[in-house]
Structures are given as C-alpha cells and as structure tokens.
Amino acid sequence: MHGVIRALLLSATVLAAAPAPAQVADLVSNEVLRVCADPANSPLSNRDGSGFENRIAEHLGQVMGRPVEYTWFPMVTGFARNTLFAGKCDVVIGYAQGDELVLNTNHYYTSTHVLVVKADGPLAGVESLSDPALQGRRIGVVAGSPPATHIARNGLMGKARPYDLMVDRRVEDPAGDMLRDVEAGVTDAAVLWGPVGGPLVRAHPGLKAIPLLKEEGAPRLYYRITMGVRQGEDVWKRELNSLIRREQGALDTILREAGVPLVDNYGKGLKEGG
Length: 274
Description:
Protein name: Amino acid ABC transporter substrate-binding protein, PAAT family
CATH superfamily of the largest domain: Periplasmic binding protein-like II
InterPro entries: Quinoprotein_dehydrogenase (IPR022448), Solute-binding_3/MltF_N (IPR001638)
CATH topology of the largest domain: D-Maltodextrin-Binding Protein, domain 2
Oligomer: single chain
Largest sheet: 10 strands, mixed
Signal peptide: 1-22
Number of helices: 6
Keywords: Signal
Domain Solute-binding protein family 3/N-terminal: 32-258
Strand content: 15-25%
C-alpha cells in the first residue's frame, strides 16, 4: 500500500506539518515540471521511470513542453516537508483527496482496495469481505489501513496476518511479501490498495485481484486521487486542473495499461470505457 495510499493513506499518515505560508507563487518553475516522488514505490513511482506515475508525469511534461525533473524522497514521515514544502519540487502526482496539508487538484482517478487470491482457488469468486467463504481464512492486511476495520467487523482478524505500512520501500517490500505469501499458501488472501495490488498481480499469473466494490459501512475503501501542490498556489492548481481535464483520456489509458482498477466516483462499479 505504501500510498491511498499513496501508498494510500499516502497523505495524512505520512506527511509532516507544512511550514507557515510563504511567497509560494514564486516557487513554481515555469521551465521544468518538478515532481516530488518516492524513488522505490513501484508500481507507482520509481527512480528508473517504470512507475505509472512516472508515465503520467512524462506525459504531462510532454504536453506542457517541459522536461520532467524529480526530487526523490521515500514516502515516509517528512516526505512533504523535505520535498514540496522545501520548494524543491512543485507537484506530487498522486495524492488522496481531502488532506488539508496540500492543495488538491481535481481528482483524475478513483480506485479501491482489492482482494488478491489464487486465480484457480476456492476464493476466486469472492467479491466482499463479508463473504462466508472467508471465515477461518488467513488474510494478509496492511496494519492500520481501512480494510483492517472491515476485516475485524467480519470476524476475520483472529487469523489475519498484518504487514507494515510505514516503511522505506528501498529496503522493505510489504506488498510484494503479501503476494508471495498468497502464492506460497502462507495466507489465503491479501487486501491491498488497488493501484498497488492491481499492477503487481500482473507479475504473479497465478493470482487475481478482485476490486472490493460491495463493502458497507465506514471506512470507505475507495479514494479519489488528485495531484498535490502547496497551499496558496491557486494559479498552478488551475493550470493542472485544465491539463487533467484535457488529458483525462490519456491518463485513463496509462492507468489501465498499468493494471490500476478504475472505479466510478462513488466506488460502486468499474469506470466505463475500459
């Protein structure tokens, strides 16, 4: 998960308080698209450029006629303070909507958590964490993440296997560990943030990712993902909003090609068009 989330909970859980408002309008580069990113947060971002957020940044930079320049920092406590708020970069490509530390653009996609199971196993038809088929099963879940509440509510926590959220992905790989454990039979299923689990499952042909679209009660399992800029940078936000609106089709294509499950704005069904 590392990020809704981003690795998701990517916003409020990983960012430190912003500094006092400054002359932020002077900080945005007019010549380079300066992106704040985690160097080892595959499949979202990676120093080698392989993440789908890298592809989105490159596409936007090409449309804007600006080369992309990265400031790298692990998506842990202090990420925003050492990148965006320090004026070293101007945008976080993926940021959960609603966090007040940054100024959010309009959202450019909505996704949800997924249940990862063996494609030919007895849980392949499960669509909800309330399914009786999950009773007595060992389910991997990121500790403290929204699905953990649903797992507890459905009486599944007794055999649940927790995995860490707050890690430096350069040295730890909880999402990869979760998938390998399902493959090896250490667990029967795993719940991951869709933009992480969906793309990663493609490297594990024996597994499938099922979008969790039928969960009831709080907390919600879907999130709208925006781009994050510094508070007060309304002109820059509007520029990005206009770009998102014009390039929405291209952004959808990048996300779908990566394996990100795209859902409607209310997390009730898959987004039309793919």
